[in-house]
Design the sequence.
């Protein structure tokens, strides 16, 4: 007998993609009668609820329920959905994601094989809009120069890792380590996986577990996203400072270097030389990445777009991180 599965989804104003997610869940190879979908909606102001209701009416053989998330933050949404979920296994997904047809089946298989306490897969990042900027952002979001050692964006080999996107786990895991931390507005997955590892558990990345993920459509939206990531990463590190990785430390150090050398260049010649050197080397690295990607993909626009997107990611993440150091949230 297949174990029962609850797919939990945080959601807010996702009328453009929630139908794609539900279609993908309906098409899963896992037995539909052993699945349910719990969507925790942050009281959406667009047509998200209507889209879900119309989909439910057309597909009554897949159980889909909507619960309110009045706090409108992701960890609260996950916890609201968990409170309603009945499945033996929890599969956490996102309203921006489109899982492969065997996503649930492969996740359950990995759990039953004992490969990890939380198992997840690789993102296939797709443009979140039309045009060369959206294409560039999607490519940059999976480029090693942009995301460092975040292996779930490009890995080809299964391995034990620090974190996975979304993840699947037995419901009993929550009895052991607790639910999602509602003090963190982002980084809730990484914090959850930190507790998994510190409790003696394993986080397992299997590239055969795949989902498409829609990147931000504009550089402005990308900047907001990565500023938020950097800011809330600091708040998580206040509790788990030993989890800081080199890829996370480099952007704030780079931004700090720009700030200090920028101020210093007003007074000292050596500071101007170092600032010029820092900017020049960084620009060359970005340019090389852009040209290589453009040639590899046969898309000339990526030569400009990818460097721009990576720079926005680095600068926004680094600035958010530094701001978080000096301006923690009031509840911290």
Sequence:
């Amino acid at each position: 007998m297949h174990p029962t599965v609850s797919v939990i989804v945080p959601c807010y104003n996702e009328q453009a993609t929630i139908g794609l997610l539900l279609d993908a869940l309906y098409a899963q190879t896992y037995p539909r009668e052993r699945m349910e979908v719990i969507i925790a909606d942050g009281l959406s102001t667009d047509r998200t609820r209507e889209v879900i209701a119309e989909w439910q009416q057309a597909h009554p053989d897949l159980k889909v329920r909507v619960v309110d998330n009045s706090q409108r933050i992701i960890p609260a949404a996950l916890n609201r959905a968990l409170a309603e979920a009945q499945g033996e296994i929890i599969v956490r997904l996102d309203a921006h994601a489109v899982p492969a047809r065997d996503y649930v089946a492969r996740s359950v298989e990995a759990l039953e094989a004992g490969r990890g306490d939380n198992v997840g897969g690789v993102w296939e990042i797709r443009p979140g809009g039309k045009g060369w900027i959206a294409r560039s952002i999607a490519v940059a979001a999976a480029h090693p120069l942009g995301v460092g050692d975040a292996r779930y964006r490009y890995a080809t080999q299964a391995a034990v890792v620090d974190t996975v996107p979304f993840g699947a786990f037995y419901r009993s895991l929550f009895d052991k380590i607790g639910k999602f931390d509602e003090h963190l507005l982002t980084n809730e997955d990484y914090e959850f996986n930190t507790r998994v590892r510190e409790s003696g558990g394993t986080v397992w990345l299997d590239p055969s577990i795949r989902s498409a993920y829609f990147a931000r459509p504009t550089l402005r939206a990308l900047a907001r996203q990565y500023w938020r990531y950097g800011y809330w990463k600091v708040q998580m590190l206040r509790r788990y400072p030993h989890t800081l990785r080199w890829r996370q430390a480099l952007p704030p150090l780079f931004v700090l270097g720009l700030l200090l050398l920028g101020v210093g260049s007003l007074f000292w010649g050596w500071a101007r030389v170092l600032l010029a050197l820092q900017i020049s080397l960084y620009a060359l690295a970005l340019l090389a990445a852009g040209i290589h990607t453009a040639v590899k993909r046969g898309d000339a626009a990526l030569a400009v777009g990818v460097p721009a997107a990576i720079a926005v990611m680095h600068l926004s993440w680094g600035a958010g991180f530094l701001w978080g150091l000096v301006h923690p949230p009031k509840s911290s």
Notes: The beta strands are 5-11, 35-41, 63-68, 89-92, 97-99, 118-126, 159-160, 168-170, 203-214. The CA atoms of residues 162 and 203 lie 6 Å apart. The two ends are 46 Å apart (CA to CA). The longest strand covers residues 203-214.
